[in-house]
Specification:
Layout lengths: L2 E7 L16 E2 L2 E2 H10 L6 E6 L4 H8 L6 E6 L4 H11 L6 E6 L7 H10 L5 E7 L6 E2 L5 E3 L7 E10 H11 L10 H8 L5 E5 L10 H13 L1 E2 L6 H8 L3 E5 L4 H12 L3 E5 L11 H15 L4 E4 L14 H29 L2 E5 L12 H20 L6 E7 L2 E2 L1 H7 L8 E2 H12 L7 E4 L3
Parallel strand pairs: 1-4, 1-6, 4-5, 7-11, 12-20, 13-14, 13-15, 15-16, 16-17, 17-20, 18-19
Antiparallel strand pairs: 2-3, 6-10, 7-10, 8-9
Helix pairs in contact: 5-6, 9-14, 10-11, 11-12
Length: 454
């Protein structure tokens, strides 16, 4: 049974005060619609994606989405109402039976877990809604705004999307609905509940971040959520890593010790051809663009390609900015940020040729600057922004760009800064290296990948 993801993009943005449909507004570098379509196109349980657009916007949406989404099969005009748009989806799907997920285009932060839960729930249910518990008390009022009832909050849920259905079930509900002259519904589960009451609608858990962009403040919230979006890469066994990495050419910059050295060691064990550079081993300075270009050219000449470039080098200077010596300021910025820029520039032609992977590193301090860490925190925030931007700039070249954000890790740099710390409170360099290689063996791009202690 095929699974269709229908993205309903018929809104006009009136409450946002916009002259364009709200799904065409840019958030985190892309339109809201692009983010949403990407979530369904990338999901392994979705076979086909249909986009329903505001009347008059079909050509512009087709131009925007282009041929970047392999599963996108139809872009159609929606109706005047949500219900009419749904009926057009039902007409567009030619199968007698299928799984259909209807999703608000203006919920761009829907995650893979929610989509998977909906698809799997349809194995045992005819209709599925996505909802989250209400954290607020909900009151009912009369025409004079006087409270008449306070329902039990433990039984209340806030509805989200996707809403998922067996195709035949939703068609049957709408067949009865159109015979009702008073028919009106704001969502599709409501149509099933009203006209097919014998069909139970299963609820699966949504997410607080699966917000609907409706009001101006929602644009700010969505942008911040994208900025802070994190993922974990699916963990792989050494055999699985070997299957993915064997024969690939991996360059590790900052590979003298710590995380970089562990990445090099494990990648070699998985069958990769690894070239590791570091200031204390090969004399390479990661902030030197010319040196990086020469090093990558040598690897490409020797191995015929470069499949992945990993930059782990960093320096940690702690203290008030006002009293930090100029040479420490220059070194901190050069190694922690300028190096990432220069490595990216030097790596681009090689990774474009191999459709490879650039992997950078940040720190948990990137989300908020910390006292006495001004240079380090701000540089690490810049690296995150750099990775996110490059993932979009280089998407057409097939290059994946991600940034790893490990918890406190036992490395020589940390030991030098903080001395010995209690056993069991730090990640090991090997743990971070394994998680980093999981990223290289994945299709993730544009993500901040968290590495946490078990």
């Amino acid at each position: 049974m095929r699974t269709y993801g229908a993205v309903l993009a018929g809104g006009v943005g009136a409450r946002l005060g916009l002259s364009v449909p709200k799904q065409m507004v840019k958030v985190a570098g892309k339109t809201i619609l692009e983010h949403t379509v990407a979530a369904f196109d990338a999901h392994p349980l979705v076979d086909e994606v249909i986009v329903m657009v505001t009347p008059g916007w079909t050509e512009r949406v087709a131009t925007l989405l282009g041929n970047r989404f392999a599963k996108l099969s139809l872009i159609l005009e929606g109706g005047v109402t949500r219900n009419e748009t749904t009926r057009r989806v039902l007409e567009a799907v030619e199968a007698d039976e299928a799984k259909v997920l209807l999703h608000d285009a203006v919920r761009p932060l829907v995650d893979a877990r929610i989509i998977a839960d909906c698809v799997r729930a349809l194995d045992s249910h005819e209709a599925v809604d996505v909802a989250i518990p209400s954290s607020d008390t909900v009151v009912m009022v009369d025409d004079d705004e006087v409270i008449t009832r306070i329902p039990d909050r433990s039984r209340l849920r806030r509805g989200q999307t996707p809403q998922a259905f067996k195709l035949s079930t939703l068609r049957a509900a709408y067949a009865k609905a159109i015979e009702d002259p008073y028919f009106h519904a704001t969502d599709d589960c409501g149509v099933v509940v009203r006209y097919l009451p014998e069909v139970g609608v299963k609820c699966v858990l949504g997410s607080e971040s699966n917000i609907k962009v409706t009001h101006p403040v929602d644009l700010t919230i969505a942008d911040k959520l994208f900025q802070l979006a994190t993922r974990t890469a699916p963990p792989k066994s050494l055999d699985e890593l070997t299957e993915q990495l064997a024969g690939r050419v991996v360059v590790v910059l900052g590979g003298s010790y710590g995380i970089g050295a562990e990445i090099a060691r494990i990648a070699k064990a998985a069958g990769a051809a690894v070239v590791a550079h570091g200031r204390s081993t090969t004399g390479l300075h990661v902030q030197d663009l010319g040196a990086i270009e020469r090093a990558l050219a040598e690897v490409a000449a020797a191995h015929g390609r470069v499949d992945a470039v990993v930059l782990t080098a960093g320096v940690l200077k702690i203290g008030p900015l006002a009293t930090t010596p100029p040479e420490d300021i220059n070194q901190s910025i050069a190694v922690n940020y300028t190096a990432a820029v220069n490595v990216a520039r030097a790596a681009h032609p090689h990774l474009a040729a191999s459709r490879g992977h650039l992997l950078l590193f940040t720190s948990s301090s990137y989300t908020r600057g910390r006292e006495n860490y001004a240079l380090y925190s701000s540089s690490k925030a810049a690296v995150v922004n750099l990775a996110q931007a490059l993932s979009e700039e280089w998407a057409g070249d097939g290059i994946k760009v991600n940034v790893v954000n490990p918890e406190r890790t036992e490395t020589p740099m940390r030991l030098q800064a903080f001395g010995e710390e209690p056993a069991g409170t730090l990640l090991s360099a090997e743990q971070v290296a394994r998680a980093s290689l999981d990223v290289l063996a994945s299709d993730l791009t544009g993500m901040v990948v968290e590495v946490r202690r078990p």
